[in-house]
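ok so for the tutorial part 2 we go from a plain amino acid sequence to predicted structure tokens. step 1 is just haveing the sequence, like this:
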Amino acid sequence: MVMLSLSVNCSEDNGQGEGINITGTWGIIDLTYVTPDGTQKVMEAEIKNGSAVSDYYFMNDSKFKQTSNMSGSGILETYEGTWKITGKKLIITLLYNGQNVDVDYTVELKDEKLILTRTSPDGKMSIVNTFKKK
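step 2 — the prediction. this is what the tokens look like for a chain of 134 residues:
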């Protein structure tokens, strides 16, 4: 599934690029697909009742960890890597199947929520992950 897309390299700014500080633990509260046909919330009931979990850990030393059971396997999986913010771009670098994988997001803090948006290369679809600090 798309949840894996949160890998980034950390920079020396400790996550405070452009005044954005995302250090800490964040739990998913909303997952939305945006396409030309409209907007669709995904796994809404599962997220609300706690059976779908995705937590992101942004550490001060630019390390990153993700625990999630939202990949489709139903198993709680853990991924680790690094993260950094450059401007309004969050880049997470994860080790996946022996390879470093960079995942870019547009990052925004709004109303105490972390909003991470990833857009397809053709620009026709976006996935918006919304998190709340734990």
